[in-house]
């Protein structure tokens, strides 16, 4: 099946779109996506391909994940999400994902998959959540992002403890992509329980990175936003 998947992906290559995606995902020297290769295939097209090949084996998926081509890895990961929906043994998918974090190396690859595979498994297996605290301490940017994004599924189910603890750990993180991710999760938390978010902000807003803070209060009214953006308040 892998040959058919690769042939299908190759047929959808778009050089002009590849140039734009390479810039968007920061593939230049010293940037977070340095060296990533794009074929210029957008997500809706990839999802159509995934739907055709969602029965692909883990061996096929592994080959896609080992590729230097971004869209190959994204296709493999989205097939994995589809397999996870139907899997009787979700632990196998979960373990496979964690063994491949080195290949889950851009923010879209994390964001489109971690909540479903890691977050979904941890929702049902609370004793396994220690993995979040290993990932969040990783030197690898993407493992840290996997940790915070995986809490999305938990907070959607009104379980807030882990998103708060992970957010607290990441307050001193240096990377803008982590600041944005934490702010996003705090904003999502606030949609479900604003009092819980405010309690966290009252404790930490003066020391939070500005980007993290801006993202977290995006849905607040003007007066509330002005209060939190004034660190001397």
Provide an overview of this structure.
The chain has 233 residues and is mainly alpha-helical. It is built from 15 helices and no strands. It has helices spanning 2-11, 15-24, 43-52, 58-65, 70-86, 90-99, 107-111, 114-124, 130-135, 141-156, 161-169, 176-192, 194-204, 210-216, 222-229.
Task: Briefly say what this structure is.
By secondary structure, this protein is mostly helical. Helix content is 67%, strand content 0%. The radius of gyration is 19 Å and the shape is globular.
Residue stretches low in confidence (pLDDT < 50, at least 5 long) are none
Q: Approximately how much helix is present in the residues?
A: 55-70%
Separation of termini? 60 Å
- If you average the pLDDT, what whole number results? 96
Report Rg: 19 Å
Element-by-element helix/strand order: HHHHHHHHHHHHHHH
Structural class by SSE content: mainly alpha
Largest beta sheet, briefly?
Answer: none
List the keywords:
233 residues, mainly alpha, 15 helices, 67% helix
Topology:
Blueprint: H1 2-11, H2 15-24, H3 43-52, H4 58-65, H5 70-86, H6 90-99, H7 107-111, H8 114-124, H9 130-135, H10 141-156, H11 161-169, H12 176-192, H13 194-204, H14 210-216, H15 222-229
Helix pairs in contact: 3-5, 4-5, 5-6, 8-10, 10-11, 10-12, 12-13, 12-14
